[in-house]
C-alpha cells in the first residue's frame, strides 16, 4: 500500500540556518505518526512542508503517492486529502465570521449544497460533543475548549484521510488534555484516518503513535516503532530526552 | 451596530474621549446650523464693516461687511465635507491596494511599496504646488492632491496588517481548505484590516482640515468669494489692526475642529486598537 | 521557620464582577527547602507570587494575609508591604527571563548593580569578580565574555541562568520561581532546575516553585501544596502526598499525568488518557460546600453543604487535606 505521506531527502535552509537536512520519513496509511523534538528541531517546518505551506530547497514529498504541487488545482485536490489542526485551533477560526459561514466555505470548496454540508456538520458536531447552537456563534462567543473542537469539526467536514495536528495539547492543563487526545484517537479509529502528531510531549506520543521520529537541528536522530524508540533508544540524544522528561513515576516507587 | 454602541460607550468613559466627542458635535452643529441662523455669506453690508458681535451679526462682520457667522460656518462645512470625502476615498483605495500588495507579496508588493515611497518622498506642500501648477486651483485639484498624498499612509498600514494576517493560523487554515483567494481577501482580510484603518482615518481628519486651511491661507485653496477657514484667517490677518474678530473666530473654530477630531481619533484608537495606543 | 504565609486572599475586580482569585491560602517553607505550589490555570498560583512580591495588577486587592519572613511580619493588605524585601530578602524568577533583565544594559552591568545595592561598600573590582563567579556557578560558559553581552545575544536557557545568577548574588531568604522552565525545552529544563537547587543549597534559602507540572514537583521538591480555584486543597511532603493523596483532586491530578514509561497497548482502545470532567467553578460566586464538589468522583451529600477544613491525612499533622472524607467514618 502506498504511504499516506512520504518525505524523501528533504532539504531546506533559511539563510545560514539549516531547517531540514536529509529528512526522510514515511507514514503508512491508517497509522498514527509522531514527530518529536525540541525547539529548533525542524518538526514544525517539516509539518508545514507536508502541508505545502513551506517549499523545500530539494527533496520530495508525496501525499498518497502524488508529489506535492503548487497551484490552485493541486491545492484543491490536496485539501480533500490532508487537513491541519493548528497549534492553537481556536486561533484558526476567522474572528469576524460566524461558525456557519466558515463551515459553508468548506461546502463551497467541495461543490456541495449548503443544506448537505449542514446535515453532515450536525452529525460531526454531535460526535464531537458540541451543541448545535455553536453554528450561529462567532468564535469569541464560545469557550476555548469548544473552539478547539469546532476547528477539528471543520477539518473533518472536508472528509480528509490525513490529519496533521501541531502540538494538539500545547497550553492545555493535564486534567483536560486527555479529552482532546482521546477524541483524536476516536476519530482516527472510527474513520481510519492517518494522524500525524507534532509534539514535544514524549509521553503522549509514546501512547498514541505507532511510529515516531525524533528530530534535532533539522535532522532525523532516530526513527521507528514507538516501543523500540522509547523502550530501547539507540541514540544518545533520544536517551537524553527521555531522561530529562520530568515524570511522576520516578518518585512513585519511593 | 452593537459594536458601534459599545465603542461609543467606551469613548464616553474617559475624559479625552468625552471632550473630543463634545468638540466634534459642537463643530458639526456649528457647520450644519450656522447658515440657518445667519444671512447670506456673500451679501455685503458696507455700513457695518468690522462690526463687533451683535444682534444683527452674531459673530460680527469682516472688512466688506459680510456676516462672519455665515462665512465661518459655511467655511467649516466646506472643510469638513472635503476632509471626509478625501479620507473616505483614500482609505478605501489605500486599503485595497495595501491588502493586495500584502497578500500577493513578491514583485507586486515591492512595486507598490516603491510607489508609496516615491509619493511620500515629496513634502505635501511642494507636491501641492506642483499639482496646482499643472491642474490649476480649485476643489477638485485639492481633493485629488490630498487623496494621492494620503493613499500611501492607508496603503502601508493595510499592507502591514495583511502581512501579519497572512501568517496567522486562521488565514493559513482558510488556505489549507482551498477557499477561493477572493473570498479570503473579502471575508477574512478586509474585516480584520478595517479596525486600524478606521482609526487612522479618524486621526487623519484633522490633518486634512489643517492642510486645507494652510493651502487656502496661502491662496491655493478655495477661491473668493467662497470662504474657507484658511481664507478667513488670511483675510482677517490682513486687517487685524482694524479688527481682531475675524481671525480669532476662524482660528478658534479651526482649533476646536482639529482638537476635537484628534481627541476623538485617539480615543477611538484606544478602543479599537488598544495595543498600538501610546506607541506613537 | 523561614517563611510563613497566612490567610492570603486576593480579589480581582473585573468588568463582570469581583473574582476571588485566592481564599485564605497559607503556606510554610523551611530554610533550605523547596515547596512546589501546583495548580492548573485558574488556580491562582501566580497570584500568590505576585502578592508576595507586591507585583499585583492595579485591579487586584489583597483582602487578607500576612507574611512572616526571617522573623519580620508583613501585613500584605497594605500597599507595598514587602517593598523592603524586594531584591534583598526575596528574589523572583519569572517564566520569561526578559521580565527580570533590562535589554539595554550588559549582563555584567546588571549583575554588578545587584551587588552594589546589597553591599555599597565593596569596590568595583571585587564586584566584577563576584559577578563572574556567579555566572560560573550557574554553569554559564565563558563568564568573562558573557559579562559584556546583552540579554538578546543569549538563548532562553542562558538568560534564565543569568537571572538565577542575579538571585544568587542577592542572597535572598526566599526565592520565588514562577514557572521558570515552562518556556524551555525539556533538556534545558532539567539543567535549569539543577541550577535552582544548586542556588538553594549554596545560600540555604527557601524556594517556592510555582508550576503546573506535577512531574517537576515530584522530582525536585521537598513539599507540595495543591491549589485549586483559589483554595489550598492539600499540603504535605511530596513523599506522603504521592503515596496517599488526601484529596480526590490531588489523586485525580496524579492520574492525569502520562508517565513516560507507560507503554503503548496493541489494542488502541486501551491507550486512553485520564480526564477530570467538569469545569472550574465561577470565581465570582463560591459554591457552598467543597470547592471541588462538582468534579469529584467520590463526593457525597455533605460535600455540597459543609465547607471542609484542613484535616490531617492518616494522622500525620504535616500532611493536611481539605476533604470531608477524612473526617467521615
Structure summarized in a few sentences:
The complex is a heterotrimer of chains A (254), B (280) and C (329). Chain B has ten helices and no strands.
Molecular structure report:
- The complex is a heterotrimer of chains A (254), B (280) and C (329).
- Helices cover 39% and strands 25% of the residues of chain A.
- Chain A is of the alpha/beta class.
- In chain A, the strands form 2 sheets. Chain A has a 6-stranded mixed β-sheet with strand order 6-7-8-3-9-10, sandwiched between helices. In chain A, strands 2-1-4-5 form a 4-stranded antiparallel β-sheet, covered by helices on one side.
- Chain A starts with a strand and ends with a helix.
- Mean pLDDT of chain A is 91; it is low at 250-254.
- By secondary structure, chain B is mainly alpha-helical.
- Chain B has one domain (2-278): Orthogonal Bundle (MetI-like fold).
- Chain B is 74% helix and 0% strand.
- Chain B has 10 helices and no strands.
- The longest helix of chain B has 37 residues, at 68-104.
- Chain B is elongated, with a radius of gyration of 22 Å.
- By secondary structure, chain C is of the alpha/beta class.
- Chain C has 2 domains: 3-89 and 171-326, 3-Layer(aba) Sandwich (Rossmann fold); 106-170, no CATH class.
- In chain C, 29% of the residues lie in helices and 25% in strands.
- Chain C is built from 9 helices and 12 strands.
- In chain C, strands 6-7-8-3-9-10-12-11 form an 8-stranded mixed β-sheet, with helices on both faces.
- In chain C, a hairpin with a 2-residue loop joins β11 and β12.
- Chain C is globular, with a radius of gyration of 21 Å.
- The two termini of chain C are 34 Å apart.
- Chain A binds chain C through residues 38-39, 173-179, 181-182, 185, 189, 200-204, 206-210, 226-227, 230-231, 240-252, 254, and chain C through 40-41, 185-190, 212-216, 218-219, 238-239, 242-243, 252-254, 256-264, 268-269, 271-276.
Helix/strand layout:
The complex is a heterotrimer of chains A (254), B (280) and C (329).
Chain A: E1 5-14, E2 17-27, E3 32-37, H1 43-51, E4 58-63, E5 66-67, H2 72-79, E6 82-85, H3 99-109, H4 114-127, H5 144-157, E7 162-166, H6 174-191, E8 194-199, H7 202-208, E9 211-216, E10 219-225, H8 226-231, H9 236-244, H10 249-252
Parallel strand pairs in A: 3-8, 3-9, 6-7, 7-8
Antiparallel strand pairs in A: 1-2, 1-4, 4-5, 9-10
Helix pairs in contact in A: 3-4, 4-5
Chain B: H1 2-12, H2 15-33, H3 68-104, H4 106-121, H5 124-135, H6 139-166, H7 169-176, H8 181-217, H9 229-238, H10 245-272
Chain C: E1 3-14, E2 17-29, E3 34-39, H1 45-53, E4 60-69, E5 72-75, E6 90-93, H2 107-118, H3 124-137, H4 143-147, H5 156-170, E7 174-178, H6 186-203, E8 206-211, H7 214-220, E9 223-228, E10 231-237, H8 238-243, H9 248-256, E11 311-313, E12 316-321
Parallel strand pairs in C: 3-8, 3-9, 6-7, 7-8
Antiparallel strand pairs in C: 1-2, 1-4, 4-5, 9-10, 10-12, 11-12
Helix pairs in contact in C: 2-3, 2-5, 3-5, 5-6
